[in-house]
UniProtKB/TrEMBL annotation:
Keywords: DNA-binding
Transmembrane segments: none
InterPro entries assigned: NA-bd_OB-fold, SOSS-B
Name of the featured protein: Nucleic acid binding protein
């Protein structure tokens, strides 16, 4: 019995030593074959090692076996952040190389734009590429990451890039055509668009660009399907609020899921005359948007200019009287800013509330002006409630008492971050016009309930 136990102990120690020895190779194979289950890789590896196949040969055999089964061919527009182990058949629309610091070493990487029948997307390659603009290629075992708020294809050292027959994809002149789109169809996968839209808001702003003071134009464009913010980095002669413009090949940037249109000196922009046929009424596109269900915004990456109505079910901590840094405007505690140290804080007010309409709930942020409207007390009036305690918590507790359960409407923008969806409010009101409709639906839902 003792001999059997000794042999079992020796066997277990040997297996553990083998596991430690082969673990790095299993990890490498798992990265290379990102879409293959780890247990399948381990079983194949163990079998080959038992037949005394050299480790390097075993790895080549496993990679060849699983890759021969083929990676899923995806379209660019189908890609989402975090995907791995797929293939693309695309043309190179743009490619360039640059040298970067990677873990203290100077490394050459390649970047550019890929195109297929479904759309365009940027890419970065960490392996050497001998490719030219116009080449048709199959990229296998690629992955997708979030880079500057949009999807980007990442080509690693474990990816394969093979030249395809030139006739396997449409000509580059066809793939490079920038589509004419309605705003409702513009999303994170769009790099450039062409469209016709009305300017419903416009203002000038001075910005510092690499030490140079530059005046840019910002505003809002609208068509019959929606609204999007825009920035023009060059003058727009003869353009004002109410103008209809046609633009081509404008770049699209995305921030927290919300696209914005960027015009520069290379973007053709022309005024649309009153005699031209339009797909929308210039007067109607400036009407306030109709309310949408909260569930709709929860499923979107971000929506620009949207209206929600619902009940306040919670007033969140962090609401009430706050102090801000006079330099960066961050909320500070005990007159200490995490970026600028000890400062003389500026008094402010805000409300963070949860709005619910029965289809979902979303965090809504109100600034001082809107908080004073909803709460019914100004910043200075709120200080009078502090009394002798001088406790900021007194205002927070009073806000919860006054606001919880109240029915309100809000208009603003939604954005998605790692913390979820947030609604940044531009205006707020009490929607009294739909009271009868709400009562009717409530009674209908209660019909038959004892």
């Amino acid at each position: 019995m003792e001999e059997m136990l000794r042999l079992c102990t020796v066997s277990l120690k040997w297996e553990n030593m083998m596991d430690e020895k082969y673990a790095p190779h299993i990890e490498e194979l798992t990265k290379v074959l990102a879409n293959v289950d780890r247990s399948m890789i381990e079983n194949e590896f163990d079998l080959l090692i038992k037949y005394r196949v050299p480790i390097s040969e075993a790895k080549r055999t496993i990679i060849k076996k699983f890759r021969s089964s083929g990676f899923m061919i995806r379209g660019i527009k189908e890609l989402s952040v975090g995907e791995k182990g797929f293939s693309l058949e695309v043309r190179i629309l743009k490619i360039s190389e640059k040298t970067v610091d990677l873990k203290g070493e100077r490394t050459i990487i390649f970047s550019g734009i890929l195109a297929d029948r479904s759309g365009l997307c940027p890419f970065t390659s960490w392996k050497q590429l001998a490719l030219n603009v116009g080449d048709a290629v199959r990229i296998s075992n690629a992955s997708v990451r979030n880079w500057y708020n949009r999807t980007e294809v990442s080509i690693s050292a474990y990816s394969e890039v093979l030249l395809l027959d030139d006739s396997s994809l449409p000509d580059i002149s066809e793939l490079a055509v920038i589509p004419v789109k309605k705003f409702i169809d513009v999303g994170p996968s769009d790099l450039f668009i062409s469209s016709v839209a009305a300017i419903i808001d416009l203002y000038h702003r001075n910005v510092d660009v690499k030490g140079e003071d530059l005046t840019i134009i910002e505003g809002v464009l609208a068509d019959e399907t929606g609204r999007l913010p825009f920035v023009s980095w060059s003058p727009l002669d003869g353009v004002d609020i109410g103008s209809i413009i046609r633009f081509k090949d404008a770049s699209v940037r995305v921030y927290r899921g919300v696209p914005s249109i960027h015009l520069d000196s290379s973007t053709p922009v022309e005024l649309v005359g009153p005699g031209e046929d339009l797909s929308f009424d210039p007067m109607s596109v400036n009407k306030p948007p109709e309310p949408v269900c909260i569930s709709e915004v929860l499923h979107a990456d971000g929506i620009f200019d949207v209206v929600l109505v619902g009940n306040i079910v919670s007033v969140r901590p962090g609401s009430g009287l706050i102090a801000r840094c006079p330099i960066c405007n961050r909320v500070i505690l005990k007159n200490v800013c995490r970026s600028h140290g000890a400062v003389d804080g500026l008094q402010d007010m805000r409300i963070k509330l949860v709005l619910d309409d029965g289809t979902g709930s979303v965090l809504v942020m109100l600034n001082r002006e809107l908080s004073e409207i909803v709460y019914g007390k100004t910043l200075h009036e709120s200080f009078s409630l502090l009394g002798k305690t001088m406790s900021m918590n007194a205002i927070f507790e009073d806000m919860k008492r006054v606001l919880t359960g109240r029915y309100i409407g809000v208009r603003g923008n939604t954005s998605r971050s790692e913390f979820g969806v947030t609604f940044v409010t531009k205006s707020v009101w009490v929607p009294d016009h739909d009271a009868e409709k709400r009562i009717y639906h409530l009674l209908k839902r209660l019909d038959g309930v004892e």
